């Protein structure tokens, strides 16, 4: 007899009106390249293999994660499994040899150069969904999307996505070429997209892949681990905000325990309940974290649970530092 999770695994979600069918939960691979502290490549590859074996199809990476390390890691993991996955690749962030961030470059020539290197590092002939990581204020979005459209025509890219873009940019991009999904942060603690972005997506027939559904581990009680963990610099984890937010985290943990769920499963199940047509992307670094996340598929929340959870969780602090928030197109009003 099929289990509830097996039944869920057989369900797929279509990304936009023209995009691919994907498993209802995606795997975000950024954390496998050091953004959240120490990692182990062998463990990361085991986790990707386990995800594929459990039915997960969408793998999300970026050419600037670990300065190319993440793409090479994903490339090794999908060797011999390419036809079972869809690769979502973000591009365009400029980084120095010291790891510093130096802005974005979305000029057409740069777009095609980034794509050439990503194809090589991933060891593939085509990228399933290619997306600018952020808006480059110096380059019209029409020029960037036009360059990716050229890559689609040439067979190097299958679909075009966006990341952290606002409504006006979405509309302008979609007029150049169909956009299949917007990648945006969304969680019970991060509900900004509900106001204007999600209604625009529904109007345009664009889907969403939702990252940060665990608020970078905040909702599960995870805390920054060591100097290499950039969460130590984020407003929700630091100082008075970090201390204040522990009350909401503790309330969420009690709520989950009462329903025999883990905090992670509860946070993911809330996203499924709130946005059933969109795809959460969970940054599991280990097989145990992956198993926990997949457990949410079999634990749907009632409308009453959704409302009760929302009344418990009040998170202080922005999701990024002030400078990053200022440059996010998705945060423009």
TrEMBL record:
<protein>
    <submittedName>
        <fullName>Aldo/keto reductase</fullName>
    </submittedName>
</protein>
<dbReference type="Pfam" id="PF00248">
    <property type="entry name" value="Aldo_ket_red"/>
</dbReference>
<feature type="domain" description="NADP-dependent oxidoreductase">
    <location>
        <begin position="24"/>
        <end position="312"/>
    </location>
</feature>
<dbReference type="InterPro" id="IPR023210">
    <property type="entry name" value="NADP_OxRdtase_dom"/>
</dbReference>
<dbReference type="InterPro" id="IPR036812">
    <property type="entry name" value="NAD(P)_OxRdtase_dom_sf"/>
</dbReference>
<dbReference type="GO" id="GO:0016491">
    <property type="term" value="F:oxidoreductase activity"/>
</dbReference>
<dbReference type="GO" id="GO:0005737">
    <property type="term" value="C:cytoplasm"/>
</dbReference>
<keyword id="KW-0560">Oxidoreductase</keyword>
<dbReference type="InterPro" id="IPR050791">
    <property type="entry name" value="Aldo-Keto_reductase"/>
</dbReference>
